[in-house]
Amino acid sequence: MLVVNNDGWRQRAVEAATASGERLCVFPLPTDYKDKLKSNIADIKQCAEEGDADHILAALFLREFIEGTPPWLHLDLSTSSCKGGLGAAPGPETGFGAAWTFELLRQLANKKSKAL
Length: 116
Hints:
mainly alpha; Aminopeptidase; 3 helices; hydrolase; Leucine_aapep/pepB
């Protein structure tokens, strides 16, 4: 699951996912969900008690503290296991995100070197 606050970074992330063979699901950051983070005892809750839209709420929580910063993206690896293995990994740990990260960095490095 990917959350990103910038269309350019969203496009780069999806391109890197396609090139690396790792699938990404880009989640939205809908502001109407923000009400679920209201709290009577804190400035903001980390999540909702009923458990709906956990990943989106976590991203909205993060956004509260990093909005106004340069563009950012967050790749959630919390569900990166697969009983019986997945792809090249024989165990339950998939290693998901490693190939994507290297591909994204490779693309960014190539883009920067072409700009120089």
